[in-house]
């Protein structure tokens, strides 16, 4: 018998309980043991819930019960999540989580603690919701020297951009829909301002390149600056605007990591990723390019990944699960400023003026564009080069183009 305790009964926690219950028979068969949901830690009433007899309000009940093998942390945030995860690992329990904020901030120390106690700390659901990505990265792609990870890593912002552009919703309406569907973080500015995608690229970079990348080392921009005008210009040449998290291997073991809106060309499979879907493209020296695609948020897709981690641990409670990386360093992460790329620029200027400043351009158009406004794509250049050439012009938007 493998006993499970879930911490937090919100979108993800209740989804985990539902999948464990609904698919209990097949889970037991596949694990070749009985996987039993013993406790759910809550801090308020859930009238009518079928799980009443499993609810507890004191974490020490779970911590001190030697029958509990796996603690599933789906509370979110840092403080209580860090405390309970630490106490659970020290009490000899494995921990599974969907909490990317905690893993991005404290993954290195928690993985070390898990190893010291011979237990697992697994977090497949922390990146890409239901998409299998972390285990493929550390297992199936283990033979590769990886050079790049590029992903649409936030379901809420991808959903908002899709609904604004395709259905004409306002930003606020699209965000409300994403919240109602259970996609958004408790504080949705974590989604909209790119912090959630930042945490996920930190985790991907750590697994891909072997050292902890901390969120405050990663330049991060969200989607607030993206307008329907920009989306219209981009579409005229087949580009889509996507919020991307990128991590690129650098010389001497360093890493370039950043989050920003990009124009993605129509020929790139990331351009077709819409709605709540996420996709992560990986480049390795043996595999070449590979892409992982699926639902990046939501109750049951996320629970699918959490329960798979539970099953992985349940099959072998003491196995080393290969999630590990070294401590980070203050100079580990390189700024993207020196990364040369084409840029999308929209400016209050005539095409000739923009060309005089930026050189050769690919002009973009849109119906209803105001007189005296030009949007175009530049030749590849670094950010300082772009800024120098744009000095003195009235720049309305500028985003990188994924080359
Ligand atoms: P949520 O709906 O807000 O659920 C969190 C639950 O945890 C709430 O019910 C909350 O209780 C409870 N909780 C918080 N602190 C607690 C404590 N100290 N003791 C007991 N219960 C506590 O959030 P969620 O969407 O399920 O997200 C949970 C985690 O999964 C987050 O780390 C999130 O980033 C991650 N995640 C979410 C998704 C998604 O699609 N939603 C996908 C992947 C990962 P109250 O109701 O009383 O506040
Ligand atoms: N708020 C997150 C998102 C949940 O929208 O992607 C999944 O991590």
In summary, what is this structure?
By secondary structure, the protein is of the alpha/beta class. The chain has helices spanning 11-22, 24-31, 59-63, 79-90, 100-116, 134-140, 155-167, 171-180, 189-192, 195-209, 228-236, 299-315, 351-358, 383-390, and strands at residues 2-7, 35-41, 55-56, 68-73, 94-97, 121-122, 146-152, 219-220, 240-249, 255-264, 277-284, 288-295, 333-334, 343-347, 361-364, 374-378, 395-401.
Question: CATH H level of the largest domain: which superfamily?
Answer: Dihydrodipicolinate Reductase, domain 2
Give the CATH level 1 class of the largest domain: Alpha Beta
The small-molecule ligands in this entry are:
NADP nicotinamide-adenine-dinucleotide phosphate, L-homoserine
Helical/strand content category: alpha/beta
Radius of gyration: 23 Å
What is the helix fraction of residues, given as a range?
A: 25-40%
Number of domains: 3
Main beta sheet: 11 strands, mixed
Total beta strand runs: 17
**What gross morphology would you assign?**
elongated
CATH fold annotation of the largest domain: Dihydrodipicolinate Reductase, domain 2
Mean pLDDT: 96
**What is the second-level CATH architecture of the largest domain?**
2-Layer Sandwich
């Amino acid at each position: 018998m493998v006993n499970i305790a879930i911490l937090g009964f919100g979108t993800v926690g209740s989804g985990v309980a539902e999948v464990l219950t609904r698919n209990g028979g097949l889970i037991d068969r596949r694990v070749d043991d009985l996987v039993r949901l013993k406790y759910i830690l809550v801090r308020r009433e859930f009238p009518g819930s079928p799980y009443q007899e499993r609810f507890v309000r004191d974490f020490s009940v779970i911590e001190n019960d030697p029958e509990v093998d796996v603690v599933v942390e789906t509370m979110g945030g840092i403080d209580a999540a860090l405390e309970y995860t630490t106490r659970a690992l020290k009490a000899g329990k494995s921990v599974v989580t969907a909490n990317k904020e905690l893993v991005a901030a404290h993954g290195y120390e928690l993985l070390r603690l898990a190893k010291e106690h011979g237990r697992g700390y697994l977090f497949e659901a922390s990146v890409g919701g239901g998409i299998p990505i972390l285990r493929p990265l550390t297992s199936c792609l283990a033979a590769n020297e990886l050079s790049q990870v590029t992903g649409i890593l936030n379901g809420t912002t991808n959903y908002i951009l899709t609904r604004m552009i395709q259905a004409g919703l306002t930003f606020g309406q699209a965000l409300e829909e994403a919240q109602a569907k259970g996609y958004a973080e408790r504080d949705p500015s974590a989604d909209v301002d790119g912090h959630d995608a930042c945490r996920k690229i930190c985790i991907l970079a750590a697994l891909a390149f072997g050292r902890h990348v901390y969120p405050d080392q990663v330049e991060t921009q969200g989607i607030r600056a993206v307008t329907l005008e920009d989306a219209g210009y981009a579409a005229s040449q087949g580009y889509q605007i996507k919020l991307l998290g990128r991590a690129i291997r650098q010389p001497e073991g360093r890493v370039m990591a950043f989050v920003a809106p990009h124009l993605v060309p129509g020929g790139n499979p990331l351009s077709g990723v819409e709605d709540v879907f996420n996709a992560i493209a990986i480049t390795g020296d043996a595999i070449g390019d590979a892409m992982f695609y699926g639902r990046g948020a939501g109750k049951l897709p996320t629970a699918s990944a959490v329960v798979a981690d539970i099953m992985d641990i349940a099959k072998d409670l003491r196995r080393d699960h290969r999630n590990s990386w070294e401590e980070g360093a203050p100079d580990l992460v390189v700024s993207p400023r020196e990364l040369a790329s084409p840029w999308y620029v929209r400016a209050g200027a005539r095409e000739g003026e923009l060309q005089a400043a930026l050189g050769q351009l690919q002009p973009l158009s849109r119906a209803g564009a105001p007189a005296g406004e030009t949007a175009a794509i530049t030749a590849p250049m670094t950010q300082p080069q772009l800024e120098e050439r744009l000095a003195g012009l009235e720049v309305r938007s500028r985003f990188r183009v994924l080359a």
